[in-house]
Amino acid sequence: MQITKYEHAxxxxxxxxxxxxxxxxxxxxxMSDLQGVQAIVITHMHDDHCYEEQLDRILNNxxxxxxxGTDEVCQRLSSYQTIAVHHGDFYTxxxxxxxxxxxxxxxxxxxxxxxxxCGVLVDSELYYPGDSFTTPDQPIKVLxxxxxxxxxxxxxxxxxxxxxxxxxxxxxxxxxxxxVGHDLNNGRVKQVVEAHGxxxxxxxxxxxxxx
Length: 211
Hints:
CATH class: Alpha Beta
Helix content: 10-25%
Order of helices and strands: EEEEHEHEEEEEEHEHEE
CATH architecture: 4-Layer Sandwich
Strand content: 25-35%
Low-confidence stretches: none
Number of domains: 1
Mean pLDDT: 98
Shape: globular
CATH topology: Metallo-beta-lactamase, Chain A
């Protein structure tokens, strides 16, 4: 499986000519040229993860792609055909398996209502938690780790990585960082990953890794 990191929180996974798109939000470049998309996973309804204009671009070339999202995502996207997902759900879609974890977005501030969030594990190998620190109940080969957001502190990210103990890890959800910020936060994540015997990669938008 190939993983291509797009801007901010968006990932495109490819295997045997088929693709899964995760969280194509408004910080991500227009995605008008993707082919072979079997599924679109939207972890929660915030615009940086769920953006109708991006969905329309993807679906224009892939009209049969299924959209998986929380109940709130499905309500927002009521004019689309969607599949509501919850903690513990498991689907097979094309060449991929999708398993979902968690229920709630990390708290931004006590004055801001909490929303739903479901992390996703693809092919029992790549785990992306969305906007949460939900820890899966199984060993993780590759962790897509959020490194910048209004809802996180780097100390919490480090504790999350220490709990997951991935064999490989790369940074995502990081459009808010400057070059200095990337260096600082990536360094902290790398420290924890390597302390548990794993390796860390910094994928810039457009970079691809293979697992």
